[in-house]
Amino acid sequence: MLKLEHISKSFDGVNVLNDLSLEVEDGEIVSILGPSGCGKTTLLNLILGITKADQGQIIYQGKDITEIPMEKREFNIVFQDYALFPNLNVYQNIVYGLRNKPNISKTEEVDAMIDLLELRPHLKKGIDQLSGGQKQRVALARTMVMKPKILLLDEPLSALDGVIKESIKSKIKTISRQFHLTTIIVTHDPEEALTLSDRVLIIEKGKISQYDTPLGIVNAPENEFVEHFILNQLIIKRDNILTLFGNVPLEAGKAV
């Protein structure tokens, strides 16, 4: 379990996160959702270890890791822009991290991840020959062969659309379930969060507005911000949300 206890963070005197506490269960997919500037990326960076909290503790599997540096936490991130090496082909990108830690994944495990993410036809291609969805799958494979204890994803679907976006969402779910991998995703898109996650953390101005299951948020928004920011944006996407919940009747008067 990952626990954040009373986390606060400021930059240049501006309070970005304010006394934030939450728990993420092992194997759970959690989306961090909110408008630009609400503190969601800062929270992701705190978990990863790029940024240090001003106050509070980060606990993983009962151990205080607040002061443990990023490289020793064994959490890995897939960045929004993929951060692939343009001078290397697909296969070289996937195994790049194994140059320093060659014993983390066996050859057959790397091959299995390549097949899971359907990358075998692309292994010899240059990065500039790939579509956005293919680049995202390469970034996922490169991260997964390092066997992270927690997978962090920063806006993984923002550059994708349509069928490609749905395919990547499916791959993220498959990876999380198959490897029982705790997965934390930053997104600004309510539909992504509700259709991808076990629970959604909604942040407004550095504070938790609601932390709940997708169905709990849709049926019982806890405040006006959640109702306006989340539900009003989903009015035109009703069919997608109803499909997610198996056409469970929603409470009368809700925006979806």
Task: List key phrases describing it.
four-stranded antiparallel β-sheet; alpha/beta; 2 domains; 256 residues; Rossmann fold
How would you characterize the overall build of this protein?
The chain is an alpha/beta fold and 256 residues long. The chain folds into 2 domains: 1-75 and 149-159 and 167-221, P-loop containing nucleotide triphosphate hydrolases (Rossmann fold, 3-Layer(aba) Sandwich), CATH 3.40.50.300; 82-147, no CATH class. It has helices spanning 40-48, 70-73, 90-94, 107-116, 132-144, 162-178, 190-196, 214-219, 224-231, 238-244, and strands at residues 2-11, 14-24, 29-33, 55-60, 63-64, 75-78, 150-154, 182-187, 199-204, 207-212. The strands form 2 sheets. It has a 6-stranded mixed beta sheet with strand order 6-7-8-3-9-10, with helices on both faces. Strands 2-1-4-5 form a 4-stranded antiparallel beta sheet, covered by helices on one side. β1 (2-11) and β2 (14-24) form a beta hairpin. α5 runs parallel beside α6. The longest helix has 17 residues, at 162-178. The chain is globular and about 50 Å long. The relative contact order is 0.16. The model is unreliable at 247-256 (pLDDT under 50).
